[in-house]
Automatic annotation (TrEMBL), chain C:
Classification via InterPro entries: Bact_solute-bd_prot1
Repeat listed as a keyword: no
Coiled-coil regions listed: none
Name of the protein this chain belongs to: Extracellular solute-binding protein
Length: 295, 303, 556
C-alpha cells in the first residue's frame, strides 16, 4: 500500500476524489434502479413512461409472470449445473496453461508457439454452422458438456493470468526450485497463492460469462428443459421488432407488458452476480503479503 | 552453482508440456475444428453438400462485399468508432482505478467498485430505450443540465456529427467497470518497497502515482490495449443497432449493422463467413504488429 | 474494454408469426381465384377418396421441429411431444410424428437457419419464404404437386385458395408446388387510421373522411391543446423511425395519395414498376414536410421506435396514427384502462382527391410447410393438413377436443400442421354482425368475441380491445369495407427475391429511409426526391425492375 501523509492539499484531494467517485457510482447505478422500478410497476405506467426511480402502481406481476413457470426453476438448476462444472474446469485449465506460458523462452521452449496457438483462436472463428455441426457429430447437443467444454479454455483469462504471473518476483519461485520443488509443486504452493487477486478477477469473469450466456443454450439444446436460466429468460420476452405483427401477437403483447417483463428479467439475471461479487472483492482490494520475500 | 530452474532439457520441460496438453487438445477440437468451416467464405455454400462438397467460387463472396455501395463510409465509421473506443476505453479505467486506489475507507471502495460494474449487466436493448429518453433534446435530463449552462439542446442521437462520440461515451460508461477490476487487481500486487523507496526519495503522493503506480500497470495496460486491437473491426453491433437510426447512418452505420440489414446473416452463408474472415485477418494483422513492435523495440513480449 | 466472448455469426430475427386464427369459415365467400398459372393445381378431382384419409399400416414415422408460442402454458400430460393431435395422428392416420426440437418463437428463425445450414432438416417442417428459397436452391425439398393433387380434400383446397390463391402461387416455382402455404391473412395487414375520438369531440372535429379532414385533425391536435392541460405538449401525427410498419407508420398516408412505396404496381404500359420511385410519393412527402415544419410531427421521430411511440400515445402526447387492425389490442387497451375518458377508433384510409384510396397488400403467407427430399410418403403431410382442416372447419364444426382443454387453453398449438382460412378474422366480424342483427348462429371463435363485446357494452372496460376490433365499427369492419369495395392494391410481385434484390435491396432501402427522413425533416428539399429516384435506379433498382418484369413474363 502506498505511504501517505496528511496535509491540507491531501484532504482537499480526498474530498474531491470521494465526491467524484460517488457521483460516477451513482450515475452507474441509476439505470439499474430505474429498471428495478419499472419491474415493480404496472404495465400501463411503464408503457406511458411514467416511471423514474420509484415504482408506479406497485405490482409484482412481472415477477410472477417471469418466475411462475416451472421452467424457471429447471433452467435455474441447469445454470447452476453449468457453473458447477464449467467454472472449476475453466479455472483449472486457465491456471495450468498460464503457468507454463508465463515462463521465459529459455525455460520453456515452444512457449511462444503455444501462446500464438491459443491467441489465434480469439481472432479466428469458423462460424456458428461448423461449430454446430461439430457438436452434433460429437453427440454433445442437449448435454451440459456442450455448454462447458467449448468454454473450458478462456484464452483471454489465460493471457491475463500469465501476464500477472510473469510480474511476480522471480526470487519466490527460484527459492522453491532451489529447495528441490518441481514445476507442479511450485505452481500450486508458490505461484497460485500469490495470484489471488488476478485469480479472483478471472473467477469473476468466468462465472459472469457462464451465467450470462444465453445464445449457446438456445442453439445447442434441442429440448427446452435443458435451457440454462438466461436462455429461458430470453424466451419470456416477446420480440417486438418484426415488420408486421399479427393480431394474435398483438394480443399477447397487451397481456404481458414487454417493458416490465424485460425489466424483471434483467433484475433476475443480474441479482446473483451482484450478490456473489462482494465476496470476491476481498481479493482485489486487500493487499497481498509480499513481505515474505527476504531481500 | 546452486540448483535453480534448469533450462532446456526435455525432462525438466515435460511437466510444463503436460500442463498445457489438456487445454491444447480442447482448443484443437472446439476452436480449430470449426475453422474448417472458413472454407465457406470461398464457396457457394449448399447445405446439402456441406463444406467439402459445395462448389468453390473463389473470391466472389469477397467481391460481393466490396461492391456494396457505401462500403468506404461503413469501413471508415467502423474503424473510427473502434479506435475511439479502444483509446477511451483504455484510459478511463486506468484513471478510475488509480483514483479508486486512493480511497481509504474500505466500505466506500468496495461499494463504488460494485456499482460501476453494474452497467455491464444491462443489455443495449434496455439501455437504448433509456438513452433515447435522457438524451432527448426536448425532454431529456442531459440537455436540461446543459441548459443550465446556457447551452443549446443537442440532438445527441439524431445528429450524425455527434453520434459516434455518443457511442463511444456510452460504451465506455458501460464497460469501464470491467477494466477497473483488472487494474485494481494488478495494483494490489505492486511491491510496497517501491513506494517506500519513492517516499525516501522525497516523493509525495502524486509522484508516487506517476513513478510507481502507473509504471507498475504498464504490462496490463499494454496487454489490454493490444487485445482490444483484436476488436478493431467490431464497433459493437448490439450497441449501434439499438441506438442508431436513419438520421445517423452516415456516421454510425458499421460493418455489422450493414451486414445485418442485408439479411446476409440469414441465408447468405458464404458472404457472412467472408466478412467474418476478413475481420479476423485484419485483427490478426493489428495484434501481430503490436506484438512484434513491442518485441523489437522494447524487448518486451506482450503475451 | 470488452470481454472477448466467442460469438458465432449473429442471427437476428423477426419472430415467427403463426397467426391465431379463430373463425369458422362457413359462408364466407371466397373471392374468385385468379387463374392458376400452371396446370398442375387446377386439374384435380379425387377428394374424399380413401387415399385422402386412409391410415398407414404399418405406421410410418415422420420427424419435424416445432415452435413454442409466446405465452403458452401446458399443464398435466399435455406437451408439444405428447398431446391429442399426435396421439390421433398415430391412431387414426398411422403417422407417428416426432419432434426433433422445440424452440420459443423468438429464436425460431435462428435455430431453423442452423438446422438448414447443417443439413440436418427433419422430414417436414414450417419455414419462411427466405428459407424456402434456400431449401429450393440447395435441392433439399421435394415437389408436392402430385401429392397435393391426389390427396387434398375439397375443403383443404378451399382453405388453401382462400386468399385469391396468392399463397399457393407464391409456393409454386416453375410450375411445381414446392410447399404448402400456411395461410395468414394479408388483409389483416391493411393500414387504417386510428384517432382519439374523445379529442375529436373535445375540439369539435369531424371523423376523417378525406385527407383534408386528416390534415385538419393533425393541426388541431397539435395546436388545440386536446389533452386540456394548458401546455403545448401534443403533436399531430405519430410516426416512428422506420416509417413503415404496424404502428405509427406511413403506408396509409402514402396510400391516401395513391402512392404505394412498398409495392410493385403496373404502370400505364402494363410494366411493373416500384412504388417508391413514383411521382405520387413526392406529393405525399411534400405534405409530410409541411406537417413537420408546422410542428405536427415529433421533432425526434427519427430516433423513436415502436416502443417509444406506444409510450407517446399512452402518455397522451399524440392522438392520430396510421396503423393496423390489431392495434385494438396493442397499445391501446392499457391506455384506455387507465384513462377512462380516452377512446380510440379505427377508420378507413382517406384519399387526397376524388379517387377512393386503396390499401396495399402483400402476399400474406408467412410460413410454408416443406417436405424433405428423402421422404417416401410426402402425401402423409397432405393428410395431416386434411386432418387439421377437417377438425377446424369440417361440417361438424370445430372439434373442441382438439382445440382447447383445461390443461391447455391453446391446445391447438400442438398440431403439427395447421391450415388456416385467410378470411377468418373477417368472418368473425361478419358472423358477429349477422348474429347481432339477425340472431344468426355464432361460430366457435366468433362466440368468444361476441361474449366479450357484450360484456364490454354492459360496462366491463377490460374488453375494450375486442370491442374495437370485432365490434360494430371496429377495425375489422374497416377491413370488411376494403374487401367489399375492392379498395385493395395487391402487390403485383409475389415471387421469391430475385438475385439483385437479394444483393442490393437492403442498400436501396437504407437510402430510401435516409432520404425520406431527411425530406420530411426539411434537411433536404423536396427535389432531393428526384435525385433519389435516379440514384435508386442506377444503384440496382433498374436491374431489379428488369428482373421483376422477367418474372412476370415467365408467369404467362
Amino acid at each position: 500500500m502506498m505511504v501517505q501523509k496528511s496535509s491540507p492539499g491531501r484532504m482537499l484531494f480526498q474530498f474531491a476524489n470521494y465526491s467524484l467517485l460517488a457521483i460516477i457510482a451513482a450515475v452507474c447505478c441509476l439505470p439499474l434502479i430505474h429498471i428495478a422500478a419499472i419491474s415493480f410497476s404496472s404495465s400501463s405506467a411503464a408503457t406511458a413512461g411514467l416511471v423514474n426511480v420509484w415504482p408506479v402502481d406497485f405490482t409484482t406481476m412481472a415477477y410472477q409472470y417471469t418466475l411462475s413457470k416451472s421452467e424457471f426453476l429447471t433452467s435455474f438448476l441447469v445454470a447452476l449445473e453449468r457453473i458447477a462444472i464449467g467454472v472449476p474446469l475453466a479455472m483449472l485449465l486457465t491456471v495450468l496453461v498460464a503457468f507454463p506460458l508465463s515462463k521465459e523462452s529459455r525455460h520453456f521452449r515452444f512457449r511462444s508457439v503455444y501462446v500464438w496457438y491459443f491467441v489465434v483462436t480469439i481472432l479466428f472463428n469458423g462460424g456458428l454452422i461448423p461449430f454446430y455441426v461439430l457438436l452434433k457429430e460429437l453427440h454433445l447437443l442437449d448435454t451440459i458438456w456442450a455448454l462447458t467444454l467449448p468454454a473450458a479454455v478462456p484464452v483471454f483469462n489465460v493471457i491475463l493470468l500469465l501476464n500477472f504471473m510473469r510480474g511476480l518476483p522471480r526470487e519466490l519461485s527460484e527459492a522453491a526450485y532451489i529447495d528441490g520443488a518441481g514445476h507442479w509443486s511450485t505452481l500450486w504452493k508458490v505461484i497460485f497463492p500469490l495470484s489471488k487477486p488476478v485469480l479472483a478477477t478471472v473467477l469473476l469473469f468466468t462465472c459472469v460469462t457462464h451465467w450470462n450466456s444465453w445464445f449457446d443454450g438456445l442453439i445447442l439444446m434441442n429440448d427446452p428443459h435443458n435451457y440454462p436460466l438466461q436462455s429461458y429468460l430470453q424466451t419470456v420476452i416477446i420480440n417486438q421488432d418484426p415488420r408486421f405483427m399479427t393480431v394474435s401477437e398483438l394480443k399477447v403483447l397487451s397481456e404481458v407488458s414487454n417493458r416490465t417483463a424485460k425489466a424483471a428479467q434483467t433484475l433476475v439475471a443480474a441479482l446473483p452476480i451482484l450478490l456473489v461479487y462482494p465476496f470476491l472483492q476481498r481479493f482485489f482490494i486487500s493487499g497481498i503479503v509480499l513481505g515474505s520475500v527476504k531481500g | 552453482m546452486h540448483k535453480s530452474e534448469r533450462t532446456g532439457k526435455w525432462s525438466t520441460e515435460l511437466p510444463l508440456h503436460l500442463m498445457v496438453l489438456p487445454a491444447a487438445v480442447l482448443i484443437a477440437i472446439f476452436s480449430y475444428g470449426p475453422m474448417v468451416g472458413l472454407t465457406i467464405a470461398f464457396q457457394d455454400f449448399n447445405p446439402s453438400k456441406g463444406f467439402f462438397g459445395s462448389p468453390f467460387n473463389n473470391l466472389d463472396n469477397f467481391r460481393y462485399v466490396l461492391q456494396l455501395p457505401d462500403l468506404p463510409g461503413i469501413l471508415f465509421n467502423t474503424v473510427y468508432i473502434s479506435m475511439l473506443k479502444i483509446v477511451a476505453g483504455g484510459i478511463v479505467p486506468i484513471l478510475f482505478a488509480v483514483l479508486l486506489n486512493e480511497v481509504r475507507v474500505r466500505f466506500f471502495k468496495r461499494t463504488v467498485q460494485t456499482l460501476v460494474y453494474l452497467p455491464h449487466f444491462l443489455s443495449w436493448v434496455l439501455l437504448g430505450g433509456i438513452l433515447i429518453e435522457i438524451l432527448s433534446p426536448s425532454s431529456g435530463i442531459v440537455n436540461a443540465v446543459l441548459g443550465f449552462f446556457g447551452i443549446e439542446p443537442v440532438f445527441f442521437l439524431g445528429d450524425y456529427r455527434i453520434f459516434p462520440y455518443v457511442l463511444v461515451a456510452t460504451d465506455v460508461w458501460k464497460e469501464f467497470g470491467f477494466g477497473t477490476i483488472v487494474y485494481l487487481a494488478a495494483l494490489t500486487a505492486v511491491d510496497p518497497r517501491l513506494y517506500e523507496a519513492c517516499v525516501i526519495d522525497g516523493g509525495n503522493r502524486w509522484k508516487q502515482t506517476i513513478h510507481v503506480t502507473i509504471p507498475a500497470l504498464f504490462p496490463v495496460i499494454i496487454l489490454l490495449l493490444t487485445l482490444s486491437l483484436g476488436n478493431i473491426l467490431n464497433a459493437g453491433f448490439d450497441q449501434v443497432f439499438n441506438l442508431y437510426s436513419p438520421l445517423v447512418y452516415r456516421s454510425g452505420d458499421v460493418i455489422d449493422t450493414a451486414v445485418y440489414r442485408m439479411g446476409l446473416l440469414d441465408m447468405q452463408f458464404g458472404v457472412a463467413t467472408a466478412v467474418g474472415l476478413f475481420k479476423s485477418v485484419v485483427s490478426l494483422v493489428f495484434i501481430s504488429l503490436s506484438y512484434f513492435l513491442a518485441y523489437r523495440l522494447a524487448g518486451y513480449r506482450i503475451f | 474494454m470488452t470481454t472477448k466472448s466467442k460469438r458465432g455469426l449473429r442471427f437476428f430475427l423477426p419472430a415467427l408469426t403463426l397467426s391465431l386464427t379463430l373463425s369458422a369459415c362457413s359462408g364466407g365467400n371466397s373471392p374468385d381465384a385468379s387463374p392458376a398459372e400452371s396446370s398442375a393445381s387446377a386439374t384435380s378431382t379425387s377428394s374424399a377418396s380413401p387415399a385422402a384419409t386412409g391410415k398407414y399400416d404399418p405406421a410410418i414415422e415422420l420427424s419435424t421441429v416445432r415452435v413454442l408460442y409466446d405465452g403458452d402454458t401446458f399443464a398435466g400430460d399435455v406437451s408439444m411431444d405428447n398431446n391429442i393431435w399426435y396421439q390421433t395422428y398415430d391412431s387414426e392416420l398411422g403417422i407417428k410424428v416426432k419432434n426433433l426440437w422445440t424452440v420459443p418463437s423468438a429464436q425460431w428463425e435462428q435455430k431453423m437457419n442452423i438446422t438448414i445450414a447443417s443439413n440436418n432438416i427433419p422430414d417436414f417442417m414450417a419455414v419462411n419464404s427466405k428459407q424456402l428459397n434456400q431449401l429450393m436452391k440447395s435441392d433439399m425439398i421435394q415437389d408436392l404437386t402430385q401429392a397435393y393433387n391426389d390427396y387434398a380434400t375439397p375443403l383443404t383446397r378451399q382453405i388453401m385458395e382462400s386468399d385469391n390463391g396468392i399463397g399457393m402461387k407464391s409456393a409454386t416455382f416453375q410450375g411445381k408446388l414446392m410447399a404448402l402455404p400456411s395461410m395468414s391473412s394479408s388483409l389483416d395487414q391493411a393500414s387504417m387510421i386510428w384517432v382519439r375520438t374523445d379529442w375529436l369531440t373535445k375540439l369539435g372535429l369531424a371523423e376523417p373522411k378525406t385527407m383534408d379532414d386528416v390534415l385538419k385533425i393533425s393541426e388541431a391536435f397539435t395546436n388545440g391543446d386536446p389533452d386540456g392541460n394548458g401546455k403545448k405538449d401534443t403533436y399531430g401525427l405519430a410516426v416512428q423511425k422506420e416509417l413503415f410498419g404496424w404502428l405509427a407508420a406511413l403506408q396509409g398516408f402514402f396510400e391516401g395519395y395513391h402512392a404505394y412505396p412498398n409495392s410493385w404496381i403496373k404502370d400505364a404500359s402494363g410494366k411493373l414498376v416500384y412504388g417508391s420511385v413514383q411521382p405520387e410519393v413526392k406529393t405525399a412527402l411534400a405534405k409530410l414536410q409541411e406537417m413537420y415544419n408546422a410542428g405536427q410531427i415529433d421533432r425526434e421521430f427519427g430516433v423513436k421506435d415502436y416502443g417509444k411511440l406506444a409510450e407517446d400515445m399512452t402518455a397522451n402526447r399524440v392522438g392520430l396514427q396510421f396503423g393496423m387492425s390489431g392495434n385494438a389490442f396493442y397499445p391501446y387497451p392499457d391506455h384506455v384502462k387507465n384513462n377512462p375518458d380516452a377512446d380510440w377508433k379505427a377508420f378507413p384510409i382517406v384519399s387526397a382527391d376524388d379517387k377512393p384510396a386503396k390499401v396495399a397488400l402483400n402476399n400474406g403467407v408467412l410460413q410454408y410447410y416443406v417436405v424433405n427430399k428423402n421422404v417416401k410418403n410426402p402425401e402423409a403431410v397432405v393428410k395431416l393438413l386434411n386432418f387439421a382442416v377437417e377438425k377446424q372447419y369440417g361440417e361438424k364444426g370445430r372439434d373442441l377436443a382438439f382445440w382447447t382443454s383445461e390443461d391447455a387453453p391453446n391446445l391447438w398449438h400442438t398440431a403439427a400442421v395447421i391450415g388456416q382460412d385467410a378470411r377468418q378474422n373477417i368472418n368473425i366480424y361478419l358472423n358477429i354482425k349477422d348474429a347481432a342483427a339477425n340472431g344468426a348462429e355464432l361460430s366457435y371463435d366468433a362466440k368468444d368475441n361476441y361474449d366479450q363485446i357484450q360484456k364490454f357494452l354492459a360496462g366491463d372496460k377490460s374488453f375494450w380491445g375486442t370491442y374495437r376490433w370485432a365490434g360494430e365499427e371496429g377495425s375489422l369492419s374497416v377491413l370488411d369495407l376494403y374487401d367489399t369495395e375492392k379498395r385493395i392494391q395487391f402487390n403485383e410481385f409475389y415471387g421469391a427475391a430475385t438475385d439483385t434484390m437479394t444483393a442490393k435491396m437492403a442498400s436501396l432501402d437504407k437510402i430510401r429511409l435516409e432520404t425520406f427522413t431527411r425530406i420530411i425533416m426539411g434537411s433536404a428539399s423536396i427535389d432531393e426526391f428526384d435525385k433519389f429516384v435516379s440514384q435508386w435506379n442506377s444503384l440496382g433498382g433498374a436491374d431489379i425492375t428488369q428482373e421483376v418484369n422477367d418474372w412476370a413474363a415467365s408467369l404467362q
